Amino acid sequence: MVILMLSSTTFAQKKVEKQVNVKTTPAKMNPIIYLLGGIVPTIGQKEYDFAKKYCVSYHDFGGLAPTNLEKYEALNGTTFELLNIQFGPKWQTEINPNTLGFAKWKENNK
Fold it and tell me: What is the gyration radius of the CA atoms in the chain, in angstroms?
């Protein structure tokens, strides 16, 4: 059994940690995959189909990269791990290969 520690912040900005059983909760959590696009939107029909099939959402930063890009790569890495546990490696052939942090994650998880 794999248990991940995820952090969330309440309205009072108090940090709270909770354990998540990834075998049963990814579909309920609807994790977010972060994309770094440009002038043209990077969320197309392929991404909509992927999101529906694998119960994820997308957030496109557009052409403005966040200052803490590594944080969002790490969050995507957690989502990739959840997808592997829930669906096996098949999703890796269907995701946009330009997804933020995917190439690095795939290289580190061969």
Answer: 14
